């Protein structure tokens, strides 16, 4: 019996015993992989792609034995692009493709353990996607970085799987972006999950899932009006603009005099804020059209406006806290290595001062939950996990600043 025929027989026997009814093109690779990684073979033969592709289609033909495993190519967005040019183009124009760029732009990424970033056990676990071909050639780029496979998990690459909200859950949950928790406990999420439990088909479920709003008609771009940082320029509301300028100084996007720094280019490259009125409005109008598929226009505009106003209120509290910390730096109570009176919030938790740690929590946790909860129609998240904690932390920062001044005075 020839090598290919034997491989085909092994696959047939494997799927008979595993309960899978799917037949696929045989591949000589499966002679070994049915023994060493049978789960991968099973997953691949669940995929429609197994009807036309073989392992070599994505991994190349150089790897032929256990002695040359390092020659197996790892698929990338360029691999998927050969068959899915439209989806790849959409994806590469959106924010997900910029995940690695955004992570590398943070000033303290290089201070983190290798396992945390390159090993994908921390921030690198979600942000190891996207980036340019040049970035991927750098030694600090994760070997097992993911693009399409983040949602269409290897080796099944299931469209049906990627259409369910759980596909988004691994990255969009917890601390700074608990979209899963917000959506799943909102009325939108509850209705969707109840319909699914009742066995209704995906196009018959009433509530929207993540993909309904953020990937309308299968658009892989995935962008929002406010961006991750919840910032836009210019701003017609002068009071809100003043608070936003304070926040931008604390992100070191603006210097203490309000002039742009080199970090502005990083913000642009990562698309984590909206820097023209037209850019913000274009993304908002897309979301309005999506919401109007289920709701009337007056309701949609009112709900989005009220969510905007929760972000405004969060910025008011946040800017107050930033100025308190900045005043301590100006007074020399908090030592500043670069003589900049504003803290660098994009350093995240890398600060020895408790008051700056509190400010970091206010930014990355409570402010995020305040406005993200509002846009995800979850008033409880907006209130108790966001807005209330912002108020509580502002009180703590005021009290701690007073205590630090008192201690500094005693030392004189």
From TrEMBL:
<keyword id="KW-0732">Signal</keyword>
<protein>
    <submittedName>
        <fullName>Cytochrome C</fullName>
    </submittedName>
</protein>
<dbReference type="InterPro" id="IPR036280">
    <property type="entry name" value="Multihaem_cyt_sf"/>
</dbReference>
<dbReference type="InterPro" id="IPR051829">
    <property type="entry name" value="Multiheme_Cytochr_ET"/>
</dbReference>
<dbReference type="Pfam" id="PF13447">
    <property type="entry name" value="Multi-haem_cyto"/>
</dbReference>
<dbReference type="GO" id="GO:0016491">
    <property type="term" value="F:oxidoreductase activity"/>
</dbReference>
């Amino acid at each position: 019996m020839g090598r290919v025929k034997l491989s085909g027989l092994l696959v047939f026997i494997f799927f008979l015993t595993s309960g899978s009814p799917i037949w696929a093109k045989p591949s000589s690779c499966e002679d070994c992989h049915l023994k060493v990684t049978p789960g991968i073979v099973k997953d691949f033969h669940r995929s429609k792609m197994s009807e036309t592709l073989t392992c070599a289609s994505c991994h190349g033909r150089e790897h032929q034995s256990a002695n040359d495993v390092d020659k197996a190519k790892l698929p990338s967005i360029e691999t998927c692009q050969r068959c899915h040019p439209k989806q790849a183009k959409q994806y590469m124009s959106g924010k997900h493709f910029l995940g690695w760029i955004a992570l590398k732009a943070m000033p303290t990424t290089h201070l983190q353990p290798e396992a945390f970033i390159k090993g994908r056990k921390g921030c690198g676990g979600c942000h190891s996607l996207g980036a340019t071909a040049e970035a991927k050639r750098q030694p600090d780029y994760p070997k097992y970085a993911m693009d399409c496979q983040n949602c269409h998990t290897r080796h099944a690459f299931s469209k049906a799987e990627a259409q369910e909200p759980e596909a988004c859950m691994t990255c969009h949950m917890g601390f700074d972006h608990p979209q899963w928790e917000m959506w799943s406990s909102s009325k939108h999420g509850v209705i969707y999950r109840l319909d699914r439990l009742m066995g209704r088909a995906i196009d018959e479920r009433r509530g929207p899932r993540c993909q309904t709003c953020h990937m309308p008609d299968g658009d892989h771009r995935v962008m929002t009006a406010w961006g991750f940082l919840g910032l836009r320029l210019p701003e017609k509301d002068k009071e809100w603009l003043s608070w936003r300028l304070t926040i931008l100084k604390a992100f070191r996007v603006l210097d203490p005099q309000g002039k742009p720094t080199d970090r502005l280019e990083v913000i642009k490259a990562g698309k984590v804020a909206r820097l023209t009125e037209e850019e913000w409005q274009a993304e908002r109008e897309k979301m309005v059209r999506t919401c109007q598929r289920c709701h009337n226009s007056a309701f949609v505009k009112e709900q989005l406006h009220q969510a905007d106003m929760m972000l405004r209120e969060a910025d008011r509290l946040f800017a107050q806290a930033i100025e308190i910390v900045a005043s301590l730096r100006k007074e020399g109570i908090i030592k500043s290595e670069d003589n900049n009176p504003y803290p660098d919030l994009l350093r995240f938790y890398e600060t020895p001062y408790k008051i700056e740690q509190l400010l970091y929590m206010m930014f990355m946790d409570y402010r995020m939950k305040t406005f993200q909860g509002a846009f995800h129609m979850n008033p409880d998240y907006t209130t108790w996990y966001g807005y209330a904690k912002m108020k509580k932390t502002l009180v703590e920062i005021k009290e701690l600043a007073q205590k630090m001044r008192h201690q500094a005075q005693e030392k004189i």
